[in-house]
Amino acid sequence: MSDKYQKPLPYISEVSRPYWDAAKRHGLVIQRCQGCGHYHYPAGDTCPRCLSDRLVWVKVSGWGTIYSWIVFHQVYHQAFASEVPYVVVVVELEEGVRLVTNLVDCKTEDIEIGMPVEVVFDDVTEEITLPKFRPRVYPANTVR
Ligand code: ZN
Question: CA-to-CA distance for 46 and 100, rounded, in angstroms?
Answer without folding.
Answer: 21
